[in-house]
What does this fold into?
Amino acid sequence: MGVMGTVVSTTMTFEEFERLPDGPEDLELLEGELIEMPPPQRSHMESTHRLYKPLDAGVEGLRQAKQADGLGVVYIEMGYLLTSDPRSWLRPDVSITYPNQPGDQYCEGAPLMVFEVVSAEDRADELDRKLRLFLRHGAQEVWLIYPKTRHAYVHKAGADTVVREERAIHSDLLPGIEIPFDQFL
It folds into this structure.
């Protein structure tokens, strides 16, 4: 958290995080560290919604064609409690859960897929920690999407290399779905 140009690091448990007076609205808990997120800018939210809509429609199309066995629900800013590291509660811009992913108030465990639309306010070290946590806790793919340069870095579970994508969102996990960057950025 910033206080007159300084950074204050607050460490807490998930139980303390949940009891915060305003709730986790603009906050995340990253390995016990409280991360204050600035209010999202309009362009960021527009990109996020424009990504969510065709992704949700595509997953629903796969579901109707009975090709979505490994896919759950598409969400915007859903909270994920990483249960094997209960000091982390993260809220990606867009995500796809596993089918029947557990959780009442929040999803438990990492989602199947994460899509982060990177903002100028995002810190590289925090993004790196988040993507590694998601992958370590079960995510199969994490997409870091850079609107200004219109590219994404795709991190896959178990892969040693990172793929740079410059055209569209597509994945073996989403057969037949392709969302060109021009459609949402």
Remarks:
- Helices lie at 14-18, 42-64, 124-136, 181-184.
- Confidence is low (pLDDT under 50) at residues 1-8.
